[in-house]
Amino acid sequence: MKRTTFATWPCSVARTVDLIGDWWTPLVLREAYYGTTRFDDFERTLGLSRNVLTQRLNRLVEEDMLSKAPYQDRPVRHEYLLTDKGRDFFPVLAAMMAWGDRWLAPEAGPPVVVHHDACGHDTRAEVVCAHCGEPLRHTEVSTHLGPGFPPRHRENALRTGRFTS
After folding, report:
1. Per-residue CA distances from 24 to 60, 107, 157 (Å)
2. DSSP string covering 28-45, please?
């Protein structure tokens, strides 16, 4: 079954979901953040089929989230390394982890704890205002159409009342 693509929607959430919105892609990225680089290691830790893993890794390479570099000549084998774009996605997964720890963790507590090496403390992700540092809450933000919003859809978007210009 072919899925609908959101790659051209005028919405950063939709475009992000288009890239990572299947079950396995965020988990492949999680393993990359844990230091996994080799195909066999991704396969072993995730337990998914080789063809699905190949598809997900290839997509992440195509989207410049991972780069593919040979580490062995005979036979040729590659490792998958996080790119700048891939590393920049870490806070998104950390925020998902924090939400899951709050709402879905077992009674014993979170299965994995994030430790901030720079300050020496265990921590969790928190989304804050880039200007004042206060936590962002959906009841305390509003949305405005940005410079990348398609002009042909602007009038209709403004008419909904969800945005201001």
Report:
1. 11, 25, 33
2. HHHHHHTT--BHHHHHHH
Tokens of 76: 């040729």
| Residue with the two structure tokens 């299965």 | 111
Name the pTM for this structure: 0.89
DSSP at 76: T
Helix (H, G, I), strand (E, B) or coil at 116: strand
Asked if 163 and 145 touch (Cβ cutoff 8 Å), the reply is yes
Q: How sure is the predictor about 3, in pLDDT bands with cuts at 50, 70 and 90?
A: confident
State the amino acid at position 128 in one-letter form: V
- CA–CA dist 11, 23 (Å, integer): 21
Q: What three-state secondary structure class fits 25?
A: helix
